[in-house]
Amino acid sequence: MAGSQKTHEDKKTINVIINDQHLQVPYGISILEASTEAGVRIPTLCHLDLHDIKMVNQTASCRVCMVELVDSKNNRNKLVPACVTTITDGMIIRTDTLRSITARRTSVELLLSNHPNECFTCPKNTDCELQALAAELGIRKIRWEGERMNYPKDISSDALVKDSNKCIYCRRCETMCNEVQTCGILSGISRGFNAFVGPAFNIPMVESSCTYCGQCVQVCPTAALTEVNHSDKVWEALNDPDKHVIVQTAPAIRVALGELFGMDPGTIVTGKMVTALKRLGFDAVFDTDFGADLTIMEEASELIYRIQNNGTLPILTSCCPAWVKFIEHQFPELLKIPSTCKSPHIMFGTIAKTYYAKKNGIDPDNIVVVSIMPCIAKKAEAKRPELTKDEHNNVDIVVTTRELGAIIKEAGIKFEDLPESEYDRPLGETTGASVIFGTTGGVIEAAIRTAHEWITGKELENVEFNQLRGSDGLRKATVQIGDKELKIGIASGLGNARALLEEIREEKDKYDAIEIMACPGGCIAGGGQPYHHGNYEIVKKRQDAIYEEDRNKKLRKSHENPEILKLYKEYIGEPYGETAHKLLHTHYEERERI
Amino acid sequence: MAITRTNIMICVGTGCLATESEKVLKNLELILKARGYDKEVKIIKTGCFGFCEQGPIVKIEPENVFYVRVGPKDAKDIIDEHIIKGRRVERLLYKEPFQNEGIDKQENIPFYKKQLRVALRNCGLVNPEDIYEYIALGGYEALGKAITKMSRDEVIDTVKKSCLRGRGGGGFPTGVKWEIAKAQESQVKFIICNADEGDPGAFMDRSILEGDPHSVLEAMAIGGYAIGSDKGIIYIRAEYPLAISRLKTAISQARELGLLGKNIFDTDFNFDIDIKYGAGAFVCGEETALINSCEGKRGEPNYKPPYPAQEGYWGHPTCVNNVETFANIPSIITKGPEWFTSMGTENSKGTKVFALAGKINNVGLVEVPMGITLREIIYDIGGGIQGGKKFKAVQTGGPSGGVITENELDTPIDYDSLTGIGSMMGSGGMIVMDETDNMVNIAKFYLEFTMDESCGRCTPCRIGTKRLYEMLNKITSGKATMADLDAMKQLSYMVKDGSLCGLGQTAPNPIISTMKHFWNEYVALVTDYDNPQGEGKYEAKNKIGIES
Amino acid sequence: MKIKSLDELQKIREDHANKVKLRDSGNGESDKIEVLIGMATCGISSGARETLNAFIEELDHKKIDNVKVVTVGCIGYCHSEPIVQINIPGQSPVLYGNVKKDKVQIILDQHIVQGKPVDNLILKVDFERA
After folding, report:
1. What's the rounded Cα separation, in Å, for the pair B224 and B214?
2. Cβ neighbours of residue C121 closer than 8 Å, sequence gap 6 or more
3. pLDDT (tens digit, 9 = 90+) per residue, A363-404?
4. Where are the domains positioned within chain C?
5. Mean pLDDT in residue range A79-98
6. CATH class of domain segment(s) A231-584
7. Which residue in the set B452, B465, B467 is minimally distant from A113, CB to CB?
8. A146-227 has which fold?
9. Which residues of chain C are within 8 Å of residue B107 when distances are taken between CB atoms?
């Protein structure tokens, strides 16, 4: 969507009067920004400013932030949307007149008149921006009732549910999908009263090129886009006496789950989370970080193999299923580049149903692997045919951070007050390297820590590679390993991934290794994480927490994980060897682009 | 080459084609040939004469005899009687209602008497598919003059001095728009012709494009020169196939003569024109929606600013003008701004084309000087109300305008006076209602239109127009209460106040203005449903005899 | 062929002027001289069509463009066909009889160009009825 005009005169300040407050504000800011500075709250709905990831939704379509622009000279005040109207010198604004309040309420009333009345049973109940807005504006009656939209729910995919009847047409998802993720799946369909957002020709989501990155779910103010809820399956498994139910938690969960229980963003709740999972009755509580360490063993080996054998470079990380689906649809000609490693939670599932099952004498068919993921694409990944084609699935159930939070609440567990406990062994033994998988730059840093020691044969003095860290969506860095300088590219957000892949396809720049995560910021900002509601500071705090968790670990390199070493010794043999290939590697396929 | 002594002008505009002018044309050609007169008599296909009610129109030149309602069978008499024997075919002459005497000359027909043709100057006069005819009438001289003898500022100054205002409805001064576009620092600029005519019952732009496409091309090139653009785009609805084919022919002819393309008139000015097709959405007449549609995006408006003149087509400065606005430009350049300002009122100069429709005798296209009264248009030009019924109201400005009643019929028409009486100029649709029309139904008709045509982007328009329509339905089915009338009135003002673009901001106007002038008809439907005002049936679609 | 200058455009305009010269925009009265030629059966049989075409050709040849040649029906003087009437704006109409095509030249030169009616060809009738 077209942005408001930015000028070069950023330093200039201009005068504005908002609700009788005389203010000096920087040139070029919007009424909404100026009001926030003045401590005046203007409610918004469609507006979403995620400038950290270069996304600002400026559709000006909900008409909730209407304020009155005073024009006493001509006696012609007018209403303007505060979110997109740039302040000009001497503007007089009133946000609190009957006219502007009425306009706001009318817009919300109209939205509610076309919204299913099912807040009680809605997945976004108490977490819905429309609901909160109705409460804030004190809507008690809808004056204009009438026909409502009546579209069938799209439940075609294994990852996300699209309930167009709850679409308020703010177009945040569309902006996210098109401008940030460059997937181009979601756009406005139909017009007038029937308008809603969906894939081209309103085909089922499963037939589209949707990567299920879930960023649309993350920004949807209502429940028009949500994850497929699998928490009932977890309850069923936990209550089945014949099943051995084990759970693994992704690195990004421990720094976000606390938010669902009123804890500050960035609070590390690993110990409480493990306790909660144990109390829920899982037979063993393990860590996806174990799978991540295993991934590093394989990926670092693959990188060294490719370097030493003139193999295809760069190598691309393959932990992120949304990114994998993206390359399959969008860059099928580059399918030789990604690492063939399965993603950490799938590797974990495989090991659980082979090594762990054998070791403990459990029939793999009776093992249920539950993954707690910050991601909804993992739900679809677990159903990929090549990952389920053996006698058993690698992973049986995937639930998001949000779903886990709901399960814990439903179980009556008072999370905030829980004592801390440790993961079970063997698959709960982890290193700092695997924790940082949760943030952008983390996977490649973990791989470099291992590759560095393996190639040079010397112990690293400093395991922290600051040149690989940061929150920019697209970063480039070099790492010196012995006499070789490795060129690294890091992208988070699929739009940045696209830019990087185009560089590779057109051979504009040479890289040795590339890390891509579909979500801007990495898994900490995944589609299955607690809703940030437009506050990206939350994501930054989660990132800080991830690095803190790494620093707190005694072992910080994957190849030092004793349980991993034992696993290779007892069961797999050589990293990147024959058994490893069979168990831990996969392949990709070209997919249609629509 | 035998010298032609007579031209048979036959209208092949959309209106006349619909009444079989193509067959008339075929028969004329066949008979002319059979009689051996095809060397000295030429048949010329022309654009719209405007008198669509009386189509197909055939005009014989140089006698200046105007035949109306010419059927395929009448071709024989036109050739055998008029062409060969010089005798007027009396039965084909236009007769005023209740008069026996036919009128032979076009200018003597009351429909044309008060008209003044500037934008339509060549419609019905030239063969739109022959660039040489356009040139023979002075075509492309304005372009030549502008780019070889005038500076860009002089061109803009001339247009500014002419006080020409946008004919698409907004009435923004064209010269000022050009000036703003010229002032933008950019290597790439665009000039777009808005031919997305969408008001129900309006066909001014279509007729100009069908009847005189070169005037628009010429003006676009002049505009391109003035603002510093080398690329023009005509955004036209795909439902105008004839206009599109005429435009394509005209563009290729102009390219052949070097009037479009590189180094026009041997100067360093390059200009070419592309056609982009719209799918016929009303909202795409709004300039930002139009630009979105041109870019292949969803046809919906953006918040302004930035205005297209600052950031338009693919982010480049873009000047969007309407067809009729362009059609005025060449004459202004050749005849000078004083000539143009000699017509019209203080703040609205020149002429305006209106499409007369509804319950009026002479349905058709008229061009009148600004300042003429509605009464003159409806009674003198339009021939009064069909079936001798009583006039009730006229809607100007299409679905965005309002109704004007008997009391205000003597208002001189210009941009400001129409706004002053609660309607607007709009693009030129003029729909006449008679005493049998129920005004609640009229409001419902327009609301149904805007509701259907809303892009859905903003809440008040997307849901608000739907709710307004539902309320009108409730009223016309006798289920409404007085409280509903109040609620509808409130919502009308809120949709107007809160919508993002002109479509939503004006959509409630038909309700607001009918409530103001015909409140009793609303009340009657609430309190005394069995005795409604006007016709008793409340079906909105096609109710007032126009396409929906 | 590309038009390179206003003069070239002007030339094209002149070359194609005859295409549109017959036409009247319908905007108000014309100040053109009218040549009315009776084209009823009697006229045609006496050579009116040839006379008509001779007028057209001569006008074109002499590049006279303020004249329009109009066909009309029978006015009742069949004995004197072809009949031609010249209407100069502001003057009384003049009616000529027996205008075979060889008479066209003299009417054009004397009456239309110089404004002097060709007396010996004039048909004496009372014009009040017109």
Report:
1. 15
2. C96, C97, C98, C99, C103, C106, C107
3. 999 999 999 999 999 999 999 988 886 656 789 999 999 999
4. 30-129
5. 94
6. alpha beta
7. B467
8. Alpha-Beta Plaits (3.30.70)
9. 26-29
